Amino acid sequence: MEFIDLKAQYRMLQPSIDARIQAVLEHGQFILGPEVREIETALAQRAGARHCISCASGTDALLIALMALGISPGDEVITSPFTFIATVEMIALLGAKPVLVDIDPRTWNLDPSRVAVAITPRTRAVLPVSLYGQCADIDPIQAAAGDLPVVEDAAQSFGATYKGRQSCNLGAIGCTSFFPSKPLGAYGDGGACFTNDDALAAAMLEIRNHGQASRYRHVRLGLNGRLDTIQAAVLLAKLEVFERELLLRSRVAARYNEHLRGLVQTPFIDPENHSVYAQYTIELDDRDRVSESLREQGIPTAVHYPVPAHLQPAFQNLGYPEGSFPVAEAAARRVLSLPMHPYLSAGDQDRICAALRRVISGRT
């Protein structure tokens, strides 16, 4: 059993994927070829944003966004401790200070009620994470932030909606990832930034290509953050079936909910949100024993994420000891992600749920 079955997806999309890759091989424009602009136009339209700037990874998307906002040493950026390290890492990489606040115990996203008290004269941005495919509660976060820009880390939530609005188009900038396991994934690293601000878009275009305003005219510091043309071609093929795959993901999640409700804490999705279920993540006691028992039965699981950012060795200098963020720390001990992809069969789901029930009841 696959945790995420990319091979099943490829078998369904093989003619389209192969044809698009072959077209790139034939025209030979492997860097910023026509497919890059084509996918940017399609993604911007899908998100309802004026601009989409593709880039080499979701991590680069965060870095480019923060650079475009002028984040620099001495600045502070408020974000979540319960996230993949890249969120916090990119703030620190620019010499700014990550200011962490705890999460909502239901959604595992940034708790809006804690943002205002974390703002200081040095705060330059707020960076909420839309975890597991559900958008963060952006409106009260923006209200607390006031005039400060809100940058959505939407690495896991492209295609999700918040109060009828699209993820990636909820703040000053939205950043997403096309890592292969994402709901819309490439066959390598990839990412994108979205904005409705023309000046920010222009800055991000320059930053992703060594700060160039035109060929060999470098007007700012930048990086080599371009999306490969072949990855753009793969994304174009996958975007053709993205809406259907989101529907299938919702059906898989609904079936999990039906079978697991009352057994474990199933994902809470705010009634005004629509999740893309980048992961189907439950919460339970004795997580590690359950995970190991499922593994022994041939059922893969994953933990996103077992160590909060403030307890990572790289961030000991932030001065947040254990106990600083009790909700995030509890989640890190209790969350477990089950196999989740659009092509997960009912039979495999039955097997997963039956095994989980046996483990929890102590019958295995």
Structure description:
The protein is an alpha/beta fold and about 375 residues long. The protein has 2 domains: about 5-100 and about 110-240, Aspartate Aminotransferase, domain 2 (3-Layer(aba) Sandwich), CATH 3.40.640; about 240-360, Aspartate Aminotransferase, domain 1 (Alpha-Beta Complex), CATH 3.90.1150. Helices cover about 40% and strands about 15% of the residues. It has 12 helices and 14 strands. The chain has a 4-stranded mixed beta sheet, sandwiched between helices. A 3-stranded parallel beta sheet has the order 3-2-4, with helices on both faces. The mean pLDDT is about 95.
Seen as an oligomer or otherwise, the chain set is single chain
| Largest sheet descriptor | 4 strands, mixed
Which descriptor suits the 3D outline? globular
Rg, rounded, reads 20 Å
Q: Which class best fits the helix and strand makeup?
A: alpha/beta
Beta-strand fraction estimate: 5-15%
Number of domains: 2
Query: Which regions are unreliable across 5 or more consecutive residues at pLDDT < 50?
Result: none
CATH topology of the largest domain: Aspartate Aminotransferase, domain 2
* H/E element sequence: HHEHEHEHEHEEEEEHEEHHEEHHEH
Instruction: State the total count of DSSP E strands.
Output: 14
